[in-house]
Specification:
This protein has 254 residues and is mainly α. It contains 11 helices and 4 strands. It binds glutathione. Glutathione binds next to helix 6.
Amino acid sequence: MKTFSAIALAMTMAFAAQACTSAPPAAEAQVAQTQPTPKIVIYHAEGRRSERVVWLCEELGLPYELKFRRGDVAGSFEDIFAVNPGMRVAPTVFYNDELLVESGAILEVILDRNGNGRLVPPVNSADYGLHLKFMHFAEGTLASDVIADYRVARATDGKAPRGEKETDGQRAMRFAEDHLAKYPWFGGSEFTAADIMMVFPISYAIRMNVADPAKYPRIAAWQQKVEARPAFKRMLAIARPDGRVAPPPSLTLP
Ligand SMILES: N[C@@H](CCC(=O)N[C@@H](CS)C(=O)NCC(=O)O)C(=O)O
């Protein structure tokens, strides 16, 4: 099985070398004090939700091993099936010997055990409720509604929905846009793991033409901010080195 290890990449790519060692020393020391550094193995497919776990580890400066077949999404999924036959899904993650699925839950496990308070607002703050809302909204509402819109369109005329009546996915995008009128980040005043969760369904909605980007200028500005983060760029270089591989086709614009 051909695999790619973030650690191996870090040895050969100058910027990746920075990637795996770029957390502030103080933060790394804190992680070491709270929990022993785990062995995290991320089963990944390029352009898929497993990028969230890579990005989180990069933000936290946690070491991880990344397994995927470069340029071969179907092959990457075969490797996932071999270790997780009950649920062939990306991300599939081993945290030491625990097999984890469901990206939001995986992020929460890592944050609870090794985050040392980073990327989550204090539990008693007003931001905490916002953060948790969008941690769950990302998959529970936005991703499911946007993907349902996409599938309905693909099963019918293949056209981007651009009628006056909002689709469920567009309604969810508007809800996110309205939130950003009041707060700079999905978790309130600071960048949190909720922002990591929101990137996939938002970029899917825009890329697949489910939603018209002109209607969501705050989302567009937020996307620029998150994509400018050094940890996001490191994630792209490591987990999506050749850009998107085998992306599904976008809906046809009118
Ligand atoms: N809610 C799950 C969704 C995971 C999911 O559906 N992942 C996609 C890739 S983005 C997948 O593995 N699809 C199966 C396939 O393409 O065969 C999560 O957030 O982890």
